């Protein structure tokens, strides 16, 4: 599962017993050699789809990690790109790997996605593989934050892989991982929130609509379809109207306590 350049079992154990922020600080130097990094095929497919949706001027990669999504934004945004993450270690690696690249101006900001320090200055927000770090009750606040940094007519886009069928080995693998994490968090502090099965399409669509977004699902044809005909991977495109109304759920938009 890991390349020789990836973390050792001992390193993973230390990271898993840390907070989310500290764990990713420790993992950062070897993160790109783990399965946790979004595969290049997904990044390329999302970039191709966004080029058909654009053009965009300014883009934000939410929970950018080592900057894989920033590379997508550099291909679809004309003026500037920003990566935001709460792990200083991940941002250090992202800055290092972005040096010397041509394209729009890139900046890096350390901040919590649940309290973004930006004005509504972006046309596009993307995120890759980060939503397992947010509990379902945090989605209203998270989506309200995304809405707050987008200009009217702006887009929030992210890929979503279809969940494995209950009879498949993948289903039981994810269920087992989530169960282990819940037991770990019941017995150990600080918490490390990472639940692969908590981000459900129905909940996501409902909370995006409540935050004022119109939601469109685009199949990513590069990944084909399942036997029932449904796409294996979708791109969720949540767009604000040109004159965005106030969201219907402001009373629910507060974020939970910091997990750091």
Model description:
Helices cover 35% and strands 20% of the residues. It has a domain at 39-163 and 200-252: Vaccinia Virus protein VP39 (Rossmann fold). It is globular. The two termini are 28 Å apart. It has a seven-stranded mixed β-sheet, with helices on both faces. It is built from eight helices and seven strands, in the order αααβαβαββαβααββ. With 260 residues, the protein is of the alpha/beta class.
Set down the secondary structure blueprint.
Blueprint: H1 9-16, H2 20-27, H3 40-53, E1 56-62, H4 68-76, E2 77-85, H5 88-98, E3 105-110, E4 122-126, H6 139-149, E5 150-161, H7 169-187, H8 201-210, E6 214-219, E7 233-239
Parallel strand pairs: 1-2, 1-4, 2-3, 4-5
Antiparallel strand pairs: 5-7, 6-7
Name a few traits of the molecule.
7-stranded mixed beta sheet, disordered C terminus, 8 helices, Rossmann fold, alpha/beta
Outline of the structure:
This protein is α/β, with parallel strands linked by helices. It has helices at 9-16, 20-27, 40-53, 68-76, 88-98, 139-149, 169-187, 201-210, and strands spanning 56-62, 77-85, 105-110, 122-126, 150-161, 214-219, 233-239. It has a domain at 39-163 and 200-252: Rossmann fold (3-Layer(aba) Sandwich).
Summarize the helix and strand pattern as letters: HHHEHEHEEHEHHEE
Q: Would you tell me which CATH topology of one domain applies? A: Rossmann fold
| CATH superfamily descriptor of one domain | Vaccinia Virus protein VP39
Beta content comes to 15-25%
Strand order, biggest sheet? Answer: 3-2-1-4-5-7-6
**Major sheet attributes:** 7 strands, mixed
Please state the oligomeric state of the protein chains shown: single chain
Q: Rg from C-alpha positions?
A: 18 Å
